[in-house]
Structure prediction request, 258 residues.
Amino acid sequence: MSTAKRNTWQKDAVMHALTEAKGFVSAQQLHLVLKQHGSTIGLATVYRALTELVSLGKADSLQSNEGETLYRDCSTHHHHHLICENCGVTIEIEAEAAEAWASKVAKEHGFTQVTHTIDIFGLCKACSK
Amino acid sequence: MSTAKRNTWQKDAVMHALTEAKGFVSAQQLHLVLKQHGSTIGLATVYRALTELVSLGKADSLQSNEGETLYRDCSTHHHHHLICENCGVTIEIEAEAAEAWASKVAKEHGFTQVTHTIDIFGLCKACSK
DNA sequence: TTGTTATTGATATTCATTATCAATAACACT
DNA sequence: AGTGTTATTGATAATGAATATCAATAACAA
Prediction:
C-alpha cells in the first residue's frame, strides 16, 4: 500500500543533467544549469531528485570542504577521486587495492552493508608550483 | 612579524574537552558540555579552537551524514575509522596499506600536500542482526 | 607596569538544506 | 477519453551549522 513512485520530467531532467556534468556538482549548480537551459524546475525538486538518485544507487555524494554536498553520476563503475583543493579539478582513480582492503577490514569486524569514503586531497601539479 | 599565537584557557578547555570525549563530537556538543561544567566559553571560540586544533594536526574531522562537522582527538597516531551508521560506534583501524596506496597514487599524478579521507561505513555486528 | 594586538564572546549574517502547503499532474481504473 | 486518488511539484518560510563583525579583554614582550 503505498508510496508508489511516479515518473516525472523533473526527475529525468536531474538525472540527465547529472550525467552530463562530468565530475562532482552541487544541487545548486545543477539547478542553475537546468534553468539556464530553460527549465522551470524548482530548487527543492532538484534536492529531492538527487536524494532519490542516491538512495537508488544511481548517484553518490560527498561533502566538499566548504560544507556543500556534491553529487555525481554513478551509473558507470565504482571509483574514487583525487581532488585539487585549489583549482577543484578531480581525477578519477581506480582503487581496487583500497576497495579490497576496505571490505576485508569491515568483514573482520563483522560489519555489513558496507560503504566507504576514499578521497585524496592535495594540490595538483599545476597548483603546486 | 606576526601572527604570534597566544595561549588561552579557552583553547586548553576545548583541547581537554575533546580529549575527554571518546569518539566524535560536534562543536555544538562540546560547547554544551563545557557550559554544563560551568565554563563561560563562547560558541564561536569553540569553533575557532577546533579549527586551530585540526590545522595543527591535533584533531581530525569528518562530516556526519546529517551535515555536521565532527571532531576527534588525534594527538596519538594517524588512523582511520570504521563507523556504524546505526549506533554510531567508531572503531579505529590501522591502514598502512591504504596510506601507502594513497600517497603513491597522489604522487603519480604530481599532487603535493596530500591528505586523504578514508572512512568505512556500515552496520556493526550488533546492529546487523 | 604598560603598550600592542591576538583573542574572546555576543550576536548578526550567510548559506545550504529541509519543511510547509496549496496547486498540479501521474497513473490506475473505469 | 474521463475521473478520482494522491504522489509530486515549486515558491517560500524555516532551520541550523558555521562564519563575520566588532567592541572589550587579556597575553605577552619590553
